[in-house]
Amino acid sequence: MEIKFQNIKNKSLKEDSRIAIIDIGSNSIRMLIYEDFNSSIVPFFNEKAVCELGKNLDKSRKLNKSGKEYAIKVLKRFNEILNVSKINNFQIIATAALREATDAQDFVREIENIFSISVKILSGEQEAEYAAEGVKVSFKNVDGLVADLGGGSLELTHVDNNKILEKTSLPLGVLRLLNNPLIKKNNLPKYVKKLFKDEKWLAKKKFKNLYLVGGTWRALFKLHLFQNDHPVHIIHQYYLEKFELLRFIDKISRFNKNKLKSVEYISKSRTQYLPFSSIILNEILDITSPDFIHCSICGVREGKLASDFLDNVDINENTKNSLNFISKKRGDIGENYKKYFNFIKPVFIENEYFNEELLILACVLSHMDWGLGAFQKAELVFNETLNTPLLKLTHKERIQLALACYWRYCSIKYNPKIEYLKFLNNNEIFSSKQVGSALRFANSLTSISTIFLDEFKLYKRGNSIFLKIPSQHQEIISKQVIKKFKAFSKELFLEPRVIYSNNI
Question: In Å, what is the CA distance from 300 to each residue of 53, 307, 346, 471?
Fold first, then answer.
């Protein structure tokens, strides 16, 4: 993707760019607050309360009484947070429980009296579409089936190269199943198969990818991640191949109550649903046969906001906003990362293992100087970069960037923990070293000011790498600069050449 630097502002959001969304689900209620959704879809406030509004809904057709009482207390707290924070730009959505309960209108009126805004109750199809939109804004190119499992329903959406096609909503929520005396673990597969049979489009195509949305499936993947010592402790974009996942969920689906109580790493409010979610997932895998199954932390909430505010936003604009947002968070003054990028870019044009998009992110994310020693900064920046709030990054890309930023601050003779390196091949590791060394060298040139980067030129010719410098700036080329330039050249397997010129 070509990176374009241009000044564009999204006028869809109000002057105060903070925005909040409250999601009233069958099992839980959650509020997210974003500093600027147009620049980052990672919230700075994220709080959930398990209220079980949809408990026994199939039997009573009404919202759970104790759930309603608890939900009102939670919503009053959320309203207080919004008021204290002076956040006026917010919305409230609701899903399956409020779609189906006969007493939903009275409950909705009570909520609207608290917040003085309308509650939008989503239809099943809207919920399916927004879940897919949420996945679309957090993955680079969505191609496959999006499955959103909640407390009251399961939404399935076919997305073909980011284009939403078929979609459906089914009464397969984990809270609904747990409280249904007619459906037990042993007859659940048959029940799921029957519902899937009516969705003819599901069996028509083999989906390459399956994207899982919903708290219970996140818990399932989190359990697998920690049990298998995956070094990147981020659930989003964690993925498994079909047969590895089948083995795992077969084990989980057999757990009894005593075994579930001993499960570590995940919330106890989720563990009781793991066998149900595993059985449902097994049936989805059986009918759709995907190659890769990805976990997404984004779904209906992010999809609703994306549809409202990012629907007509150009990808270059969104990228630019995100880069500027993160660079300011990292302490970059005056968008200096652009100067670093333009300076080192000519050397990496043909590098297939560290593309242009990753290169500019390395320039953005490597900028941090808190007065620590070089090695301490290297470790700090490595961890910060690994966990950077850019959801479209795969785990492999996170490691590549983190390594480049690590070597920006310390010599390449040092290495982070070996478990990170095993996710990359040798070419990818070498490329990360090269980018880190380039940034380390560029920084040595800018110890006075990045103004000089506009006047210097770096390029490759044959077996050499050239640094072209105006004659009036010769004093900048210190022993330290030459040392860093030679180290960088060595990583590229090229001979270093410094040229002084009256014209650049």
Answer: 18, 10, 41, 59
- Helix runs in 37-160, H state only: 57-60, 65-84, 96-100, 104-115, 124-136
Please give the Cα distance from 301 to 129 (Å, whole number): 11
List of domains in the chain: 19-122 (3.30.420.40), 139-297 (3.30.420.150), 330-501 (1.10.3210.10)
211 within 8 A of 259, measured Cβ to Cβ: no
Q: How far from 473 is each of 84, 476, 501, 502, CA to CA, in Å? A: 54, 6, 10, 10
Question: Within a 13 Å sphere around the CA of 404, how many CA atoms are in the beta-carbon half?
Answer: 28
Long-range contacts of 488-493 (CB under 8 A, 24+ apart): 488/434, 488/437, 488/438, 488/440, 488/441, 489/465, 491/412, 491/430, 491/433, 491/434, 491/437, 492/347, 492/434, 492/460, 492/465
Strands 28-34 and 19-24: antiparallel
Rounded to whole angstroms, how far apart are CA atoms 406 and 439? 10
Tens digit of pLDDT for each residue in 246-266? 999 999 988 887 787 778 888
Q: Distances from the Cα of 427 to the Cαs of 350, 407, 417, in angstroms? A: 13, 16, 18
175, 97 Cβ separation under 8 angstroms: no
Q: Is 14 helix (H, G, I), strand (E, B) or coil?
A: coil
Flag the least confident range among 315-324, 354-363, 454-463: 315-324
Residue 145 predicted with pLDDT over 90: yes
- Residue 113 has what pLDDT? 97
| Tokens encoding 29 | 């209620």
Instruction: Kindly state the helix (H) or strand (E) to which residue 399 belongs, with its residue range.
Output: helix 395-409
> What is the pTM for the complete model shown?
0.90
Burial of 333: CB neighbours in 10 Å, binned 0-12, 13-18, 19+: exposed
Token pair of 490 as six digits: 């060595």
For 421, the enclosing helix (H) or strand (E) is helix 418-421
Long-range contacts of 140-144 (CB under 8 A, 24+ apart): 140/392, 142/209, 142/211, 143/208, 143/209, 144/207, 144/208, 144/209, 144/210, 144/211, 144/290
Q: Which residues contact 336 (CB under 8 A, 6 or more apart)?
A: 327, 367, 446, 450
- What is the pLDDT averaged over residues 409-429? 86
Which amino acid type is present at position 179? N
Helix, strand, coil in percent for the chain, rounding step 5: 50, 15, 35
Bridge-based pairing of strands 239-241 and 119-121 is: unpaired
Q: How far apart are the first and last CA of the chain?
A: 28
- Positive or negative CA dihedral for 280, 284, 286, 289? negative
